[in-house]
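Q: How would the structure tokens look for this protein?
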Amino acid sequence: LVIEGTICQDTPKTKPHEAITRLGEGPVLTFMDRTSVADRRILEELRRIAEKKGIKVQYKEGTAGGNDAGAIHLTRAGVPTATVSVPCRYIHSPVSVASISDIEDTLSLVEGFLRSVARGFYP
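A: Here is the predicted structure in token form.
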């Protein structure tokens, strides 16, 4: 599981259909970016955990960007991989802006996933 900050383009002048992610809408799950394709089983488990815990999640719109999942999922014969992100405005700048509730919900979702793995979940 890769945990990161991802681009958030939800400023007032951005048209709704151009927003990649939005602050305050919860952790971001990524189906695919320019370097990786998420494992469907992991995404389903993350969605199940989010629903059980009442965590609102959003999906990254578009395939721009990449992260360590690109290298991880290609290791050896392939490693089941997915990414959970916190939406951040002004990413890759000296200062980013994020929502405290998005950060807390991301931590709760990741904790739930780790507990699921400890109980035997394996994709």
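The helical segments are 40-53, 69-72, 100-118.

The domain at 2-11+18-118 is CATH 3.40.630.10 (Aminopeptidase).

Upvote if useful.
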